[in-house]
Design a protein that fits this description.
- Helices cover 54% and strands 17% of the residues.
- α1 packs parallel to α3, α4 crosses α5 and α8 packs parallel to α9.
- The N and C termini lie far apart (47 Å).
- β5, α6 and β6 form a beta-alpha-beta unit.
- Strands 1-2-3-4-5-6-7-8 form an 8-stranded parallel β-barrel, surrounded by 6 helices.
- It is globular, with a radius of gyration of 19 Å.
- Bound molecules: SN-glycerol-3-phosphate.
- SN-glycerol-3-phosphate binds next to α7.
Length: 215
């Protein structure tokens, strides 16, 4: 499973890219608005920093507007993937964009049927929102497991991005369920390397080494 960063913050992306574990970035209008800058100014920089797909979302609600925005976003850099909500207008736009060779990431997916529609329309990626489903008493991981089974059974080439990841257990379960990608907030990625026994073990190794060199 590849790891993407779910942020529009350039500093977070720069740091995670330096750690050497990031294969792409996803953004959404909320994350972009948090940066308090024109997103079209930030997007080229993100695309330069990351050697992999960068999802940028349309905000139009009609298919014509979505397609127009998608073409503008795709023209920013070769690695832009256009994020489109799972609506009928969205499906129509995805179909047209697939015909033009523009990659899409269908977002706000909460059911198997929504994912099936996205795949039939020709989406490159589909993004089930695990955390938001958990928030209303559902199971994001159960949905993800169903999507992995569905895509395998019907040999659908659309890749699954586990999104709305809230904690490390989501990452572990998404990887074991067979998601192609998980997109993580910087906070969750940062925690992944940590374990109290790793810290304690490292302290002990260094203390023992210092003791030897002081003898
Ligand atoms: O980028 C889409 C998704 O990851 C949003 O997550 O935490 O706002 O539910 P969240």
């Amino acid at each position: 499973m590849k790891l993407f960063l779910d942020t529009a913050n350039v500093e977070e992306i720069r740091e995670a890219v330096q750690w050497g574990v990031i294969d792409g970035v996803t953004t959404n209008p909320t994350l972009a608005a948090r940066e308090k800058k024109d997103f079209l100014e930030i997007l080229p920089e993100i695309c330069r920093l990351v050697d992999g797909p960068v999802s940028a979302e349309v905000i139009s609600e009609d298919w014509q507007g979505m397609v127009e925005e998608a073409r503008q976003l795709a023209a920013v850099a070769d690695n832009v993937v256009v994020k489109i909500p799972v609506t009928w207008a969205g499906m129509q736009a995805v179909k047209l964009l697939a015909g033009e060779g523009i990659e899409t990431n269908v977002t706000l997916v909460f059911t198997v049927n929504q994912a099936l529609l996205a795949a039939r329309a020709g989406a490159t990626y589909v993004s089930p929102f695990l955390g938001r489903l958990d928030d209303i008493g559902g199971s994001g991981i159960a949905l993800l497991e169903d999507l992995v089974a569905l895509f395998k059974q019907h040999q659908l080439p659309t890749r699954i991005i586990a999104a709305s990841i809230r904690h490390q257990e989501h990452v572990t379960r998404a990887a074991l369920a067979g998601a192609s990608i998980a997109t993580l907030p910087h906070r969750v990625l940062k925690q992944m390397v940590k374990h109290p026994l790793t810290e304690r073990g490292l302290e002990q190794f260094l203390a023992d080494w210092r003791q030897l060199s002081e003898q």
